[in-house]
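Lab notebook page, bench 4
Experiment: in silico fold of construct C2
Operator: M.H.
Input chain length: 469 residues
Purpose: comparison with the prior construct
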Amino acid sequence: MSETGKKAICFYFQVHQPFRLKRYRFFDLGHDHYYYDDYTNESIMRKVAGNCYLPANEIMLDLIQKHKGKFKVTFSLTGLVINQFRLYAPEVLESFKKLAETGMVEFLAETESHSLVSIKTRSEFEQQVNAHRAMIKEFIGTETTSFRNTELIYSDQIGSWVADMGFKSMLTEGAKHVLGWKSPNYLYCNSINPRLKILLRNFVLSDDIAFRFSNKGWSEWPLTTDKYAAWLNKLAPKSELVNIFLDYETFGEHNHKDTGIFDFLGHLPGSVLKKTPYRFMTPTEVADTLQPVSAISVPSPISWADEERDITAWHGNELQAAALDKLYDLTDKVHKCQDRQILKDWEYLQASDHFYYMATKFFSDGAVHAYFNPYDTPYDAFMNYMNVLSDFEIRINRCIPDNVQANEISKLNMLIREKEQIIDLQTAEIDMLKKKRAVRKTTARSAGKKKSSGSKSSAKKKKVKEATA
């Protein structure tokens, strides 16, 4: 139960845009080392900034000022979207800074590259998280105390890594196959390290806004703030925490302004505060205020993607597996190379979006993301990415010696040195034996001469003795 008796509602929004790749042909390998479609990236950023980021941030700022400390909200800005803001829409970055200055907004840490590194290697995962924490401090001006992984990917092991890095809480999906009979509307903790509190997304109430709001065929259409507040009240007797986690592009991009989505956003906090027992909290506040009801066991990674809530959206077929393996096989080489552009490309090429485009399964939310997918088929996405990755590898090998060759050369050099040492020892031993032999011969000659002279003297004495007899 909560320490204060309060019931919490947590509004969290993901903000992300990848650096999309241009059409990169096999014949470009070794010649063209710039991989990005600058026109598309800038066009999409300017469009989404105008449709979503700027008007939604303005509404958020107004709500914070209007409700005087009672409305709080949480964001995660990927390292990639921060870099896109800096390049194409600096006014958006400024609007997020203004939100941060109110003290009513929490910014979460995540992987700098919005990558899938957490399912590959711990050391690289931790390095990316630390890099992202530094970016949030530099460009937003806040410290990060709670964490969300790329696409809310979570497992017991990943959670334990996050706990070891000192985070108080982590966000993930309230997946049915994990929860069973349990409710997502409570605070939980990591099964390996209970110090990490786990906030589970209420996917029904979240998707009511994200995917069903503008669907006129939905039985609950149109969705009003009073109706939404009534649904929250129905949950209230048996819940302590409701987590509404959404893509920020829900407002104005996925659901256009003329659907009434901004009016809904502008009035929702007031309805929640007036008509429900819930109070807005950020993840860190939730971790500090509520007590977890139990640990949650998640042995295999889950996410907030499609019906299965697993990681098959990015790692579900042979194309994706091959591309991921190829990418992360380059990790050690990349870190031995100090070329700034190679390190920047390494960051951009890890974005989960590149692998999402290769998915061959059907997504329940596929139509929402179709606008952002630059490829006609998953196979086009795979071939384009692998061409880019092949050129990237060529550049790395030029930057540093190939590991395999370097190891072979090193082994051969070591073998040669060992043989030379053996030869030197054997030569020294032979020289020593030669010297000993020479000494023995000299000694033997000397002994022979003495024996010979002694025999002659004895014979002479004998003759003298015989003559005098």
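Observations: Residues 322 and 386 are 9 Å apart (CA to CA). The chain has two domains: 7-399, 420-469.
Next step: discuss at group meeting.
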